[in-house]
Design brief:
- Chain A: Its main location: cytoplasm.
- Chain A: Keywords: 4Fe-4S, ATP-binding, Cytoplasm, Iron, Iron-sulfur, Kinase, Membrane, Metal-binding, Nucleotide-binding, Phosphoprotein, Transferase, Transmembrane, Transmembrane helix, Two-component regulatory system.
- Chain A: It catalyses: ATP + protein L-histidine = ADP + protein N-phospho-L-histidine.
- Chain A: It comes from Pedobacter alluvionis.
- The complex is a heterodimer of chains A (263) and B (215).
- Chain A is of the alpha+beta class and 263 residues long.
- Chain A is built from seven helices and five strands.
- Chain A folds into two domains: 125 residues; 130 residues, Histidine kinase-like ATPase, C-terminal domain (Heat Shock Protein 90).
- In chain A, helix 1 packs antiparallel against helix 2 and helix 4 packs parallel to helix 5.
- With 215 residues, chain B is mainly alpha-helical.
- Chain B has one domain.
- Chain B starts with 5 loop residues before the first helix and ends with a helix.
- The chains are: A alpha+beta (263), B mainly alpha (215).
- Chains A and B meet through helix 1 of A and helix 5, helix 6, helix 7 and helix 8 of B.
């Protein structure tokens, strides 16, 4: 009997130790799981910060681009018009009434043209509002400025103007992507013809820009990892889970096709 | 000198820590725990006094059982409430525990040790603790468990009630004496109490630090 009691006591002692070990392992498991959760949490936080900083950078770049357009416009257009107005007004001879009248009429036309140009500039200054009005309007505005230069033959099919849904962050990035692509065309492509298509299909926004410029070897550019703002285009598209297809052949132009989940 | 036992010492240390560290806490939870430790200490001391006078003291532990089950249920309810709405499962748990308690006394004398209720209670407490861990892991928000007071409080409860399972099941079947006159059962309970109160003291320290950080 005593022997049996000893056996039970031993069993209870060992089992109690085992029962005490189980919570220990449980805590170790929770600790390890929690550590993974912490890393995941920090990574998520880091990505959020990166996204916010990239958004800020994009916003700054859009503003910068707007300022550059305004500076160019003021210098090349409004400035010239006003200089011409000054010259015309200075050359008026009040004794020759008929000629003076013609010159004043010319000056008035020049001033009203300047006012028109300034109104256009004022619209551009509301770059932020452009995106607020929808990505379709922002793309339209960008194309208008490109069209105004008169350097390119444009074919535009923008189906996003009456878009009812918006995504402010993505809109800003898409606008910046278009600006960057147009900048590249202006700086490097030597194109004469540009075609821009934008539309929404199956929950994805498509933006296609093709031109007939000198083209380039995409593999060489990727290997260089330097040029033409392509890296930043790729980085931003990746940030909003988009896809980019780039086709270019030296001498045969370039086409860029972007697909972004929207909104 | 007979009043000085490892359990009494650990309870005094835990009560002192509770009064110093969490008594002023705005959460009722910590005040309830402090009161419970005071009641546990009082019960322990009175039980020793009765034993010294050779008076039966199991009825005292049976009364204390009501306080014990209520406090631990309340504490676990507070901890689980942060992650889910545990009213229904606590309604079932407390119903079963109290029902077992009263049924036992309809069929047994009040001076018998209510081991059935203790066993049922331990099972429920263990399940609630495991559910708490599950919700903690499932929760999207990350918490630093090293300094999370509720986590360590629940861990103390889990160690005590899960660790005492075997002793509860085989209670009365063994009376082996080790270390002089102390039975194995007593030694196991001393160990469990030391673990429980150490973890609770640590949880009080964490709570105090947390409070200071937020003030």
């Amino acid at each position: 009997m005593q022997n049996e009691t000893t056996k039970i006591a031993l069993l209870v002692a060992v089992s109690t130790l085992v029962f005490l070990m189980m919570p220990v392992f449980l805590i170790l498991y929770i600790r390890s799981y929690n550590r993974h959760k912490k890393n995941h949490f920090l990574e998520k936080q880091h990505m959020q910060q990166k996204f916010e900083s990239e958004m800020l950078q994009t916003r700054i770049e859009v503003q910068d681009q707007t300022m550059q357009s305004i500076a160019t416009e003021l210098h090349d257009n409004v400035g010239q018009l006003l200089s011409l107005t000054t010259l015309t007004l200075n050359s008026i001879n009040l004794n020759d009434g008929e000629k003076a009248k013609n010159k004043i009429d010319n000056s008035l036309t020049l001033v009203s043209n300047s006012i028109k140009e300034l109104r256009e500039l004022a619209k551009l200054l509301h770059g932020e509002q452009l995106v607020e009005n929808g990505i379709g309007h922002a793309i339209d505005q960008e194309i208008n400025w490109l069209n105004k230069a008169g350097t390119y033959q444009l074919k535009v099919n923008n189906q996003l103007v009456d878009l009812q849904i918006t995504s402010p962050d993505k809109d800003l990035i898409i606008l910046r992507l278009l600006q960057e692509i147009i900048n590249n065309i202006i700086k490097h492509a030597q194109a004469k013809y540009i075609q821009i298509d934008s539309y929404l299909d199956n929950g994805a926004l498509h933006l296609k820009v093709s031109e007939d410029g000198i083209g380039f070897d995409p593999d060489m550019i990727k290997a260089k990892k330097s040029g033409m703002g392509l890296n930043s285009i790729y980085k931003r598209i990746e940030m909003i889970n988009g896809k980019l297809a780039l086709n270019s052949v030296p001498g045969e132009g370039t086409s860029i096709s972007i697909e972004i989940p929207y909104p | 000198m007979r009043y000085v036992s490892p359990i009494v010492i650990s309870e005094i240390i835990c009560l002192t820590s509770a009064i110093l560290l969490v008594w002023k806490d705005r959460k009722v939870f910590w005040k309830v725990i402090t009161c419970y430790i005071a009641i546990a200490l009082g019960t322990e001391l009175y039980a020793i006094y009765l034993a010294s006078k050779h008076i039966h003291n199991l009825w005292l532990f049976n009364i204390f059982l009501i306080f014990e089950s209520s406090t631990i249920l309340y504490g676990l309810y507070c901890c689980l409430k942060e992650y889910t709405s545990p009213k229904s499962i606590f309604f079932i748990g407390s119903g079963v525990v109290y029902l077992t308690y009263f049924i036992f006394f309809f069929t047994h004398s009040f001076t018998d040790a209510n081991t059935l209720t203790i066993s049922v209670m331990s099972v429920f407490f263990t399940l609630y603790c495991l559910y708490y861990y599950y919700l903690l892991l499932k929760d999207e928000n990350f918490i630093n468990i090293k300094t999370h007071p509720e986590f360590w409080w629940v861990t103390g409860v889990l160690f005590y009630y899960f660790g005492s399972t075997m002793s509860n099941i085989f209670d009365g079947l063994f009376t082996i004496k080790i270390i002089g006159v102390a039975t194995l059962r007593y030694c196991i309970y001393v160990l469990l109490n030391l673990i429980l109160y150490s973890l609770w003291v640590y949880s009080f320290i964490c709570r105090m630090k947390q409070r200071k950080l937020h003030s």
